[in-house]
Amino acid sequence: MEANITTSSLAGLVLTISDLFLPTYLLPFRRQLDTPGLYYSLLPGFLLLTLWTYSSTIVDLLTVSVEIPTQDVLYCNVQQWLEERNPATNHVLARIEADNIDFNRDTSKKPGVMVKYCPRRTCFFVYRGWWIQYSRFHVPYGTTIRQYITLRTLWPGWPIDDFLQTLCRSKNNQITTFRPARAEAREILPWRAVNTSLPRSIESVILNEENKNKVLACTEEFLKSREWHTQRGIPYRFGILLEGPPGTGKTSLSCAMAGYFGLNIYCMSLGDPSLTDDDLADLLNCLPKQCFVLIEDIDCANIERRDIIVNPENKGNKRQISLSGLLNAIDGPASAEGRILIMTTNYSHHLDEALIRPGRVDLTIPFTLATKQQLKSMFLQIFSKAEQVPGLENLENLADAAVADLPDYKISPSQFQGFLSGHKSDPQGAVDSVMDWRKKVLEV
Fold first, then answer.
1. Which long-range contacts (CB under 8 A, 24 or more apart) does 215-224 make?
2. pLDDT greater than 90 at residue 317
3. Owning domain of residue 358
4. pLDDT tens, residue by residue, 251-261
5. How do residues 218-233 score in pLDDT, each as one tens digit?
6. Number of folded domains that form the chain
7. What is the DSSP letter of 424?
8. Among residues 155, 172, 189, which one ends one of the domains?
């Protein structure tokens, strides 16, 4: 009797499941299920079909996931972490690592080529005893491809949170510099991290104190004014133009500002022959909400209103970036907000007025060749931090002697820094040889 009840119950279950999942045109075959014993062979299949149908729902209920888009700094941090540990997977992306060279290694050993591997699709890794699934996705999004990674683990999700927090702490007080990825890899990872290091001190930048304080104050005010811009319908963007001769510290100020405000910096050159208008727009649109974007030597790209960008070193080859494409990328309706755009130029009068009009460039900071007082400050800064250097007790007098015969506005900070770097532990030697160096520099 009990066996009959069990058999009837199983048969009813199979029939119920068949009603739910069999297509309408197959329902006439439902009567075949009344055949004795047939439901026993079909039951496993129906159970598997049920599990398959609701598998995504079951997974969502039992797991926790985090989605990280490419524009988030965590994306690069996770990628780098996996590259260093090379989790087991049959499908990887390989690249030759030529950017992060260890200058502390034994130079007597022959350097080799470092190949780094990163998971291409899905893999699993163990973090503090918990399995975490890593997946990479590429989804069409309008005219571009949206890229992101997903981390998934069993509920509760604290292992993922702890993993990401650990990554952030490991990069604490460090600034990452990004550059556009190579053309063939840009679809997967638009920006590549080229360096992560402690930021340069803003005090080490040689610049008129009034201008230095001005650019810091204006940038800080912008970073605090997102709500103000939103309420008034004003695009939340800030543009800075740094103009002046080569070697005067424009790039140094940009990197020091990134460190001062604790934001990463994304650097690019418009002379890159692989960049197109679409590439430029995509690169600027996949930036984090707040960051610095540095476009270096924008005047060297020979930007003209109706012409496309031409590399001055190879004027026969035309580039794919137009002035209109550049303007739309930095200030168009679809351009990203929240970023601080810094453009550097040696000659601002070479730039099209449309590029530097108010709204695109909100602040212009002029740079000049160094004054005698600035050169003295550099001397003191370099040698005051040296240890066990003879003559430190008379460093002020040595600094005065070093710059006594140097003219104002004739020497760039980078030139003088290069000279002092040749006397790292010998300030007296720098004083003794400064006149010979002066003649060489001024003759050039």
1. 215/240, 215/253, 215/257, 215/363, 215/365, 216/257, 216/260, 218/362, 218/363, 219/257, 219/261, 219/340, 220/261, 222/340, 223/261, 223/290, 223/340
2. no
3. 202-366
4. 999 999 999 99
5. 999 999 999 999 999 9
6. 4
7. T
8. 172
